[in-house]
Specification:
This protein is α+β, with helices and mostly antiparallel strands. Helix content is about 45%, strand content about 20%. The model has no long low-confidence stretch (mean pLDDT about 85).
């Protein structure tokens, strides 16, 4: 019965044998009732005594053993479980060790779940660039985090979602032949997810490596500034063939 609570099979058998009659027994009787090998019985009994599950006594130079009553066992195991839970709750992950690996992630649903979790965990800032449908997918989270004081900024390919004043819209023209679907998320200047479509399937990389974080942050600010410039001076740029040719080659 104790096997489910982390006790060994032999320990459980010894306790069950003792608890079956609640009468003191010597090792010889316990061997017969429990089926635990004679060569192992004293070792197993000793462990159960140390764990407080078996009581030990000496009568006429013979050691006798008795099981801890079941109500007390339940109380003991419950207290130990609650203590373990409290210890787990109080345990804090050491932040001195930074995971600087670059992780790959596939499947749209998995990438979407990862983006959602990172956004929900943001404490200071969210930088997000994506197409309009992706923004609307995460709009409730972005609005909630903005209301909580988290700075939310980004570039949207399409129309600006309502309620996010620091999102800059970029409306592609037919000439944007290299414009591809993507998602870029930078959270708290600490973690980055960059996703794109390869051969019809979403794939992403995720990392906390600071060199990569800085590169993607620069990439984000590049897109943000370029989108603002092209939006503000579009009429002038449209009349400059050389500049427009270069702009149309860029992947936002």
């Amino acid at each position: 019965m104790l096997y489910k609570f982390g006790f060994s099979q032999y320990e459980s058998k010894v306790y069950e044998a003792l608890a079956s009659t609640m009468q003191p027994m010597d090792a010889t009787i316990i061997v017969k009732l429990s089926g635990v090998p004679k060569a192992k019985i004293y070792e197993v009994i000793s462990r159960m005594v140390e764990k407080g599950m078996v009581l030990e006594s000496v009568s006429e130079k013979k050691k006798l053993y008795s099981a801890l009553p079941l109500p007390l066992v339940i109380e003991k195991l419950t207290a130990e479980f609650q203590s373990d839970v409290q210890e787990l709750e109080q345990h804090k992950v050491q932040r001195g060790i930074i995971d600087d690996h670059v992780w790959s992630l596939k499947a749209d649903a998995s990438i979407g779940s990862q983006l959602k979790q990172l956004m929900e965990n943001a404490e200071r800032s969210i930088r997000f660039s994506a197409w309009e449908d992706d923004f609307r997918r995460y709009l409730p989270i972005l609005l909630e985090k903005q209301n909580d004081g988290v700075k939310v900024e980004g570039v949207v390919i399409g129309d600006t979602p309502d309620g996010l004043p620091q999102i800059v819209p970029m409306k592609p023209s037919k000439q944007h032949v290299l414009l591809e679907r993507f998602r870029l998320l930078i959270v708290d200047d600490r973690e980055v997810v960059f996703a794109g479509v390869e051969q019809g399937s979403w794939q992403a990389i995720m990392t906390r490596s600071q060199p990569f974080v800085r590169v993607f942050t620069d990439y984000f600010h590049h897109d943000l500034l370029l989108t603002k410039i092209t939006g503000k001076y579009s009429e002038i740029l449209l009349n400059d063939e050389e500049i427009m040719t270069e702009l149309l080659q860029l992947k936002y």
